[in-house]
Amino acid sequence: MWRRASVLSLLGRTFRRPDLLQSNKPLVVGSHWSHSSSQPTEKWQLMSAVCLERFPVITQEMNPLEKKFSQLLQTMEHEKSHLSDHELRHLEDLKLAEKRKQDSVDDSEIDVNLLTAVEEQDAWEDEREAFQPASRLTEADTKNDLRSIERKLDRKLLLVVKQKLGNSTPWVMPMVLRMEGESMRQAAERALTTLCGSELNAVFMGNAPCGFYKYRFPKLKSASDDFVGAKVFFFKAQLQEGLLAKSLDISDFCWLTNEELVDHLVPKYNAAVQDFILEL
Known about the structure:
Layout: H1 2-11, E1 14-15, E2 27-28, E3 43-54, H2 64-80, H3 85-101, H4 117-130, H5 139-143, E4 157-163, E5 171-172, E6 175-177, H6 184-196, E7 201-204, E8 211-216, E9 227-241, E10 250-256, H7 267-274
C-alpha cells in the first residue's frame, strides 16, 4: 500500500530537465517535451470529391470454372428432383396411348381439344428457337465511346472528369473546395450538381468519406499564399439516372472501368483511388 501511494505521488511531481533549467520551463511526467520555439503550422485546403459509380446492368459472363460448376449443380438438381407436372402429364399421355392400342380406352378419357405434353413441348421449342436475345455489346462498345454510360453493361463504371484546377486540367473525380459552414458530404453533393449538372441523379452512400488523397501546390514566387496544398476526401455515390452536363470547369469526361483508370489518372492519384474501389 505504501509503495502504491509513493508511485502515485511520484507521478504527480514536477521535474525539470537539466537543459531547460535556464529557461525555467517545468516538465510534467507523462506529457510531451516543451519546445523553446514554436514552429509554423502548414495550412491545407479541404476538398470533397465524388466517386460516382454506375453499377452493372447485366450479369457478367461466367468463366470456364463457373460454367462447369453451374452444369454440375443443374445435373445434381435434375437427378434429385421430383417429376414436374409436365412430366407427369407426359406419363399419363403414354398410358392413354397404350390403352388406345388395346382398344380399351373410355371415351370419357379422351379430350380432343387438349394437346398432348409432347405437342405442347414442341410448341415451346419453336418459340425458344424464334427468340433472339439482345446483344451484350452496345453501340457504345462498338464505337468505344468512353462518354456513354451504355458501354460495358456487365462492368462497374466510374466517372472521371478533366477538371480545371489552377493552371492545369488533370483527370480527377469531380471535386470542389469546401465552403465555410459546409459539411464534407454537402461539399461533395455540391461538386456533383455544379460540375456535372442537376439532371444527374445519384444516391450518396453515407456521411463518412471512403478515401483520402493529398497533394502540394506548385511552389510560387509569391509567398502570400498561406496554403501549401489540398487534402481531398472522397465520397461514394451511385448513379440512378440522368445524363452529365459539363460545366465551364469541365473540358471532358469519361465513364471508365477500374482497369482503364490507369490510362487517365496520375499514378499517385490512381493509387489512392484503388484503395477504396471494390471490384467483385
